[in-house]
Design brief:
541 residues; seven-stranded parallel sheet; 23 strands; binds glutamine
Length: 541
């Protein structure tokens, strides 16, 4: 079978959940036995979101091969349980950079370099890259932004040409739009959808399938009207209703027959019904928890829902695995003080100190570590969170009162956390952190080793600073266990306190949350939820 292509565009408004719909469709096709991947094309000019503030763009998701990407790639991995790569996220910046570099190298042989054909050709080349080795039956491409945005135009033109060049049945377009319910008039409005389809058609693209984001179930008449004005069959208009959980969307789409129509349009025959047994078992566990637990997530980007997306989702996966509802309480680290911390963290079964950059909010994070350590509350520190745990221990147990990170105080006398050697000569910001998956060896007898059940793991990183090995001996002598080390460089990747001192105190320099999926919950998160549950039961006694 040729590789088949599905393009997903968005109309009316952003944040409709195009990534979730794309991932859900991919999930259904995968559950029918197809090999599927998803890629995202983002119209912004940044080369990647690595230099973007989380307030601008939510979490920056890191792939195993070290690309800093859009957070939708996290959804793709969580829904599909397969890894994405550098090639799965393309931006306008990357496209133009390639074309401009080519121009300087003389590749275009004296031609005037233009949006059509040079930019659109480069977009089309990138669209087929993942399909080159025949690894996939279906490639879904999500086009970021909203139809009608000036910056999406070259991408839509490339989609138009792409479809024109393909054989009938090898490429389809799915358009996701918003169908609002006007509460005052109690009316469902199709006009915005009509307009967005018209705008898509102005770009020369006729959608094959329309998915309507809606608060309520759409009456048949409404779908028929949308079909009529969009010039498609009524059986090709679907809805994506508000759901309690994003993980319900594959089921919702399947119940309407979306996957069936997609296969019909792609001329893929004789596939079995999707096997959704494990997925449904997950949903059942998630929706009928036997217990619940409160966990504090201490960070500085808490105002933005998407800033800690992967951590939040990891708790959903881990919670379902333990039949436990995890209530994640995000707490602004800047607001924590010695006098309010007890009140702020009251009743929490576990405390997670989040990743982050810069000095802002670090005092509160250190206070939170201290509170968790002294009160034997399960503690989980990720990246900056681990660094804070190390600093807290150095300050309060080793009594190195000036202990800090050179990220916080560059001229400190006590750099417990310091810039990695390779980072010292780095001046450029974009794509220069220590990125991607690195091996780590876990020390025998440690809690983390027990949790993973193996010696060698590989997890993803995104940082510039590290545990300063000059303090390793002192820290170990004072009781901190350096439980994970990179076998090539000797960098400390994980720390913990022995279990006779603390029931669960783990810090990791890597980002385990990036690897958690619905079908494979991340083991540290699972163990942390269990430890937090135990602690809350003890607290309730
Ligand atoms: N700012 C820290 C560093 O660069 C931690 C980064 C992170 O939490 N991702 O090392």
């Amino acid at each position: 079978m040729n590789t088949k292509y599905i393009f997903v565009t968005g109309g009316v408004a952003s944040s409709l959940g195009k990534g979730i719909v794309a991932a859900s469709l991919a999930n259904l096709l995968q559950a029918r036995g197809l090999r599927v991947t998803i890629q995202k094309f983002d119209p912004y000019i940044n080369i990647d979101p690595g230099t973007l503030n989380p307030y601008e763009h939510g979490e920056c998701y890191v792939t195993e091969d070290g690309a800093e990407t859009d957070l939708d790639l996290g959804h793709y991995e969580r829904f599909l349980n397969v890894r994405t790569s550098k090639a799965n996220n393309v931006t306008t910046g990357k496209i133009y950079k390639t074309v401009i570099d080519n121009e300087r190298a003389g590749v275009y042989l004296g031609k005037t370099v233009q949006i059509i054909p040079h930019i659109t050709n480069e977009i089309k080349r990138r669209m087929t890259l993942l399909g080159k080795n025949g690894d996939y039956d279906v490639i879904i491409t999500e086009i970021g932004g909203t139809v009608g945005d000036m910056e999406s135009t070259p991408f839509l033109e490339a989609v138009r040409q792409f479809k024109w060049e393909m054989n009938e049945g090898d490429c389809i377009i799915m358009h996701l739009t918003l169908v609002p319910l006007l509460h005052a008039a109690a009316e469902i409005k199709t006009k915005p959808t009509q307009h967005s389809v018209r705008m898509l058609r102005q770009e020369g693209i006729n959608p094959d399938i329309i998915v309507c984001r809606t608060e309520v179930s759409l009456p048949e008449g409404v779908k028929k009207k949308i079909a009529l004005f969009s010039n498609i069959r009524p059986d090709s208009v679907f809805e994506s209703r508000n759901a309690e959980s994003i993980y319900e969307i594959p089921i919702q789409l399947h119940e309407q027959g979306v996957d069936k129509i997609v296969l019909k349009k792609l001329k893929i025959k004789n596939l079995p019904e999707p096997d959704l047994t494990e997925w449904k078992a997950f949903l059942k566990r998630m929706f009928s928890p036997k217990t619940e637990v409160d966990i504090a997530l201490i960070g500085k980007y808490v105002e933005l829902q998407d800033a800690y997306k992967s951590i939040q989702e990891s708790f959903v996966h881990a919670g379902a695995a333990c039949s436990c509802k995890v209530n994640v309480h995000t707490i602004q680290s800047e607001h924590l003080t010695a006098s309010n911390i007890k009140g702020e963290l009251k009743g929490m079964g576990g405390i997670l100190v989040a990743p982050g950059f810069g000095e802002r909010g670090t005092d509160g994070k250190i206070l939170a570590v201290n509170y968790a350590r002294r009160n034997k509350i399960p503690f989980f520190g990720i990246c900056l969170g681990m660094q804070m745990a190390v600093i807290e221990y150095a300050k309060n147990v080793l009594k190195l009162e000036n202990a800090t990170s050179t990220e916080i105080k560059p001229d400190t006398s006590t750099p417990i956390i310091d810039l990695m050697q390779e980072q010292k000569s780095t001046t450029i910001k974009g794509g220069t952190m220590r990125l991607g998956a690195y091996d780590c060896l876990l020390k025998p007898g440690t809690l983390i080793r027990k949790i993973y059940g193996k010696e060698r793991i590989a997890e993803r990183h995104r940082h510039r600073y590290e545990f300063n090995e000059k303090y390793a001996k002192q820290m170990e002598k004072a009781g901190m266990v350096l439980s994970g080390v990179n076998p090539q460089t000797g960098l400390v990747e994980a720390i913990e306190l022995p279990q006779n001192k603390h029931p669960f105190f783990i810090g990791v320099q890597f980002h385990p949350e990036l690897g958690s999926t619905v079908l494979k919950p991340q083991p540290i998160f699972v163990a942390f939820v269990k430890a937090a549950l135990k602690k809350s039961k003890d607290l309730a006694r």
